[in-house]
Amino acid sequence: MIEMKDKGNLLLGVVILRYGTIKRRLGLHMRVSSTVFPFAAAAAISLFSAESAIAQAIPPYEGKPVFGHYGGVGLIKTRSARMAPDSTLSAGVAWTDPIQRYSLNFQAAPWLETTFSYAGFSTPTGDTFDRQFDVKVRLWEERLYLPEVAVGLQDFLGTGLFAGEYIVASKRLGPLDLSLGVGWGRLSDRAVASNPLGEISDRFRVRDTNFGQGGEINFGQFLQGEDIGVFGGVVYDTPIDGLRIIAEYDSDQNNGVEGLEDNPFNFGISYNPTPGIQIGASYIAGDEIALNAAFSTQTGEWVRDDPPGDAPSPFYVREAQSDADGGLDGLIAPVQPLIFTPVSRADLSDALTNGLLQENIKLTRMQVGTDTLRVVVSNGKYRSYAKAAGRTVRVLSRYAPADIDRFLVAFDQRGLETAEFLFDRGQLEKSASEVGYSVAPPSLAFSYITPNSIPVVGEETVFSNFPDYTYSFGPDVRLNTFDPDDPLRAQLDLELKGTVRVTRNLSFSAALGTDIIGNFDNDQRASNSVLPRVRTEFARYNEETDVGVYQLIGEYFFNAGPNIYGRLMGGLIEQSFGGFGGELLYRPSNSRLAWGLEAFYVKQREFDTLFTFQDYEVFTGFASVYWDTPYNNWNVAVHAGRYLARDFGATLEVKRRFPNGWEIGAFATLTDVPFDEFGEGSFDKGLTLKIPFDWGLSRDTQSAGNVTLRPIQRDGGQRLRVPNRLFSLTQPVSRGEVASQWATFAH
């Protein structure tokens, strides 16, 4: 029996289809259902929904995502309305003889999919490499009577060769996942009807296909064009776990790609041997075999229950304590925590110094009051400062005299006190009594305080370990991605790096290196920039450098006031520029906002990367605002000022940081340089990726891999590459960052 809602869907479909027929007979348009086809398609899927509801109540879609040839979730070449799990990052490759495509896909939010891809293929005018950005937004999830629906933009920020827009719906019917969509632009090559939006305005009938230098958003093309096309298909989940069979109808006629025939039907299989690996094969365009693979990980996995590194030392209590709530919470410890054996106040500094060094934490200052112990420490091991605070407190619990009731733990970063935590010793002891030798995280609202906001009456002991030397020697990989002539250029260098801290606030750093192997020297494309060539001649630096001084700087860090941090620096700041300048950062402890200023005078270095300079000089500086949003660990920053090529403008950065240390973001810069003067790409933009090494290792480390992906390197919108910018330096101890990792206090 059909319910009233199902009857309504049926009636809606009949009325819409009947209306199209009447309109055709009246001569209002030459093609059946020209204005109503998208709505009729939606009604048809609603009918399928009704039929499936009669059979059984279908749960929400929970199938594994299928990553298609373009990198996003879909079928083979077409998109579906499905999304990968939130925070999924996938890298994919799709190969056929006519075209090879490499892609990076990120599920930026539960409802937002972003994709960057790079393809090499032959056109009627010769071989080419094409870069494109895609985005897909889910309007609503699948429900009992409704399909999942999404809208998307394809190649909206690239050369425009594959540009198209679409609306697509997906519905689960037992082992079948059906998708049906309507497309504009390239997705309307196989036209089935006229653009219904043309009934609203004639401007929707004409599509602007002029993309200029490429890389700019052409609003004159969205949902525009004379016709619309229809695409869709089905994914069949076989009884074999991870194996799916796919069939699709593609509305793209493969125009502009030599070697692909005009055939709309594609067939393929997809197999997941493990949750993070997908391999597949397909028969596309009636005559080509395609192979594809995708490798994915859910970057936003919460802090692991099994943390890396050694187990924490036990927490010590001053006397045996009974369970605080009589066992109501079920956390009665199997054994009582250890009762401490304190040292005298005279021996406390030595005991704490040695105990903290075992955790690779340095004690830099200590102050003992009547009932309060304050320590300032430098964390050289743990990525999570919440974890470093927990390890520090355990050492204090073992040696601090019994009359100490409060612990204050402050962190020193390059001479700056950037964060401080207050701990009630008695509350920690109650927690330790309930969870055994460990200790649960206390309230962050109570513990996270402004540095030096609680005075301690007592003499401060300063541990002078200066000068302090650190160095490293080993390989370093540099990447240049998505060059118009080569998708990947890489250089393996051998580098010697060293830092000497002369005082708590003053340090000198150097980096020497030489290239071992790579293909940076293969770049034969001469710069055609009409701007000062501050970046486009990077290949010359590699060609003309034997042993280079990549960096040689002096830095002085200082606290200019409560929550105000400063830094002065000078020297050979990066491979291309040397000079001097400084910055200030105001970052209130309990605010989501921060403000920064920086200014530098620099000269361009000679290509041998030694101690001489070219004639080009520039004064560059920026005012910045940073916002740690309350939504899903998103951070937004805007930098406005003067860039290295003497252009004025602003950069927008959007990053999503995860508690496990992963960071994925995007940036875009607009300046007063016209797009045609900027050159190919129109304006500077790209993606950033930070991968913490402890995420995949069994030990703690602060090391991480940082990658910046640009579609093309130009000279406009380029900032100085300043090491240790104050915002990045203080980010690990910010309120939002600590809150997201507060559970690691117990690790």
Give structural notes:
With 747 residues, the chain is mainly beta. 14% of the residues lie in helices and 42% in strands. The protein contains 10 helices and 34 strands. The strands form 4 sheets. A 13-stranded antiparallel beta sheet has the order 22-23-24-25-26-27-28-29-30-31-32-33-34, with no helix packed on it. Strands 1-2-3-4-5-6-7-9-10-11-12-13 form a 12-stranded antiparallel β-barrel. Strand 31 and strand 32 form a beta hairpin. The longest helix has 22 residues, at 4-25. The protein is globular, with a radius of gyration of 30 Å. Mean pLDDT is 85; it is low at 1-57 and 327-335.
Which descriptors apply to this entry?
34 strands, single chain, twelve-stranded antiparallel barrel, mainly beta, globular, 13-stranded antiparallel β-sheet, 747 residues, disordered N terminus
Summarize the structure in short.
The chain is mainly beta and 747 residues long.
What's the SSE blueprint?
Layout (H helix, E strand, L loop, with lengths): L3 H22 L11 H19 L32 E8 L3 E11 L2 E12 L2 E15 L7 E7 L9 E10 L2 E10 L5 E4 L32 E11 L5 E7 L15 E10 L2 E8 L3 E11 L17 E2 L20 E2 L5 H13 L3 E8 L3 E8 L5 H15 L6 E8 L2 E9 H11 L8 H4 E2 L10 E3 L5 E16 L2 E16 L4 E13 L19 H6 L4 E14 L2 E9 L4 E10 L6 E13 L7 E16 L5 E9 L5 E10 L5 E9 L3 H4 L6 E8 L11 E6 L16 H5 L4 H6 L7
Parallel strand pairs: 14-15, 17-18
Antiparallel strand pairs: 1-2, 1-13, 2-3, 3-4, 4-5, 5-6, 6-7, 7-9, 8-9, 9-10, 10-11, 11-12, 12-13, 16-17, 16-21, 18-19, 19-20, 22-23, 23-24, 24-25, 25-26, 26-27, 27-28, 28-29, 29-30, 30-31, 31-32, 32-33, 33-34
Helix pairs in contact: 1-2, 3-4
